[in-house]
């Protein structure tokens, strides 16, 4: 997935690194020090609809061309996450216990058009 | 509000960088609290000391949490009653195991002082704190230790479950053994329950499979 640059109107991944110090949460989140809060944004014109956003296979490239030449544009397509990974957190709960847990689907790794 | 530029996704005006940053930080807070199933951030009134924390984490080398929404918990003991005469103590733990989770691994980490001579025989019992079991004791495990330092004593996870109040009380009773006989003299303090060597529980919990309870009832 391309990361969003200014002026790029198409579906891309917008990267933001959030430092827990900036949230004032370093007193209870022990590890890590921050995480990538990425989100997807950008337009999905008809010929991009259904493309996975990364490693688009030959099939989906042709499929996109067929759609682009189709006089009836497909219904609207949205820029959505297509790959996400968990985030491992070590934190203190309200009893002062140390808890280690993996929070699923926390970090968006790739975006694509629905 | 951006001057004249248009948000490529929704056609609305793009946000100024500072406004976008503020929005991202709010989103991060919501996302973290939702991911940890918390309604608001914990207010830590008695954080464990940095030394105790570092020692416990180093000891455990917390591995990757078992798959399937598992969690690893380290809970430090509050010492509510350490009888001066022997090395018996009452350890109190405040756990917050969500009802939807299942405890499947438990170890009690104790630090034995270097003054140990011979074999330390230790019985670990659980104090019932529910109304109908108040004051009753259930033997959980018996261990023998011959060396000072940290010891990880396995406890039956089934014996620690089902504490709605979240407060778990463990009674330690120990005696010195020399050969096979019990030493009659009162053992000096042998268990270290001081601040940096506080005993702690190492627990592993995971989300219950849906419908597990129903199978048991049937």
Biggest β-sheet: strands ordered side by side in the sheet of chain A: 3-6-7
Sheet-strand content of chain A, in percent, reads 35-45%
Number of helices of chain A: 2
Low-confidence stretches of chain B: 214-218
- Number of β-strand runs of chain A: 7
> Largest contact between protein chains?
A-B, 38 and 39 residues
Briefly characterize the structure.
Chain A has 114 residues and is mainly β.
Overview of this protein structure:
Chain A has 2 helices and 7 strands. Chain A has helices at residues 20-23, 58-68; strands at 12-14, 17-19, 29-31, 34-36, 39-41, 79-92, 98-113. Chain A has a 3-stranded antiparallel β-sheet, with no helix packed on it. In chain A, a hairpin with a 5-residue loop joins strand 6 (79-92) and strand 7 (98-113). Chain B is an alpha+beta fold and 218 residues long. Helix content of chain B is 17%, strand content 36%. Chain B has helices at 17-35, 50-60, 212-217, and strands spanning 70-76, 78-82, 89-94, 101-112, 119-127, 137-145, 149-155, 167-178, 181-182, 191-192, 200-207. In chain B, strands 2, 3, 5, 6, 8 and 9 form a 6-stranded antiparallel β-sheet that branches. In chain B, strands 1, 4, 7, 10 and 11 form a 5-stranded antiparallel β-sheet that branches. Chain B starts with 16 loop residues before the first helix and ends with a helix. The model of chain B is unreliable at 214-218 (pLDDT under 50). At the A-B interface, strand 6 and strand 7 of A face helix 1, helix 2 and strand 1 of B. Strand 7 of chain A pairs antiparallel with strand 1 of chain B.
């Amino acid at each position: 997935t391309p990361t969003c640059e200014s002026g790029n109107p198409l579906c891309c991944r917008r990267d933001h690194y959030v430092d827990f110090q900036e949230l004032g949460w370093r007193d209870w989140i022990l590890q890590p020090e921050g995480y990538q809060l990425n989100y997807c944004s950008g337009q999905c014109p008809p010929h991009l609809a259904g493309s996975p956003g990364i490693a688009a296979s030959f099939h989906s490239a042709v499929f996109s061309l067929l759609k682009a030449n189709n006089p009836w544009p497909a219904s609207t397509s949205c820029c959505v996450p297509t790959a996400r990974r968990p985030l491992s957190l070590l934190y203190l709960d309200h009893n002062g216990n140390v808890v280690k847990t993996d929070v699923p689907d926390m970090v968006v790794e790739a975006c694509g058009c629905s | 509000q951006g001057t004249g530029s248009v948000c490529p996704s929704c056609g609305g005006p793009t946000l100024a960088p500072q406004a976008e940053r503020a929005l991202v930080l709010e989103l991060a807070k919501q996302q973290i609290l939702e991911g940890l199933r918390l309604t608001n951030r914990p207010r830590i009134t008695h954080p464990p000391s940095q030394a105790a924390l570092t020692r416990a984490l180093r000891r455990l080398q917390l591995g990757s949490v078992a798959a399937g929404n598992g969690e690893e918990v380290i809970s430090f003991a509050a010492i509510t009653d350490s009888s001066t005469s022997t090395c018996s103590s009452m350890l109190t733990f405040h756990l917050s195991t969500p009802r939807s989770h299942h405890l499947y691994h438990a170890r009690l980490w104790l630090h034995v002082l270097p003054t140990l001579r011979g074999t330390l025989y230790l019985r670990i019992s659980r104090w019932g704190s529910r109304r109908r079991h108040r004051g009753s004791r259930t033997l959980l495990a018996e261990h023998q230790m011959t060396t000072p330092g940290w010891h990880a004593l396995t406890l039956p996870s089934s014996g620690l479950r089902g504490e709605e109040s979240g407060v778990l009380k463990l009674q330690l009773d120990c005696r010195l053994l020399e050969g096979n006989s019990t030493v009659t003299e009162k053992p000096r303090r042998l268990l270290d329950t001081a601040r940096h060597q506080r005993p702690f529980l190492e627990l592993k919990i995971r989300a219950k499979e849906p419908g597990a309870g129903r199978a048991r009832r049937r």
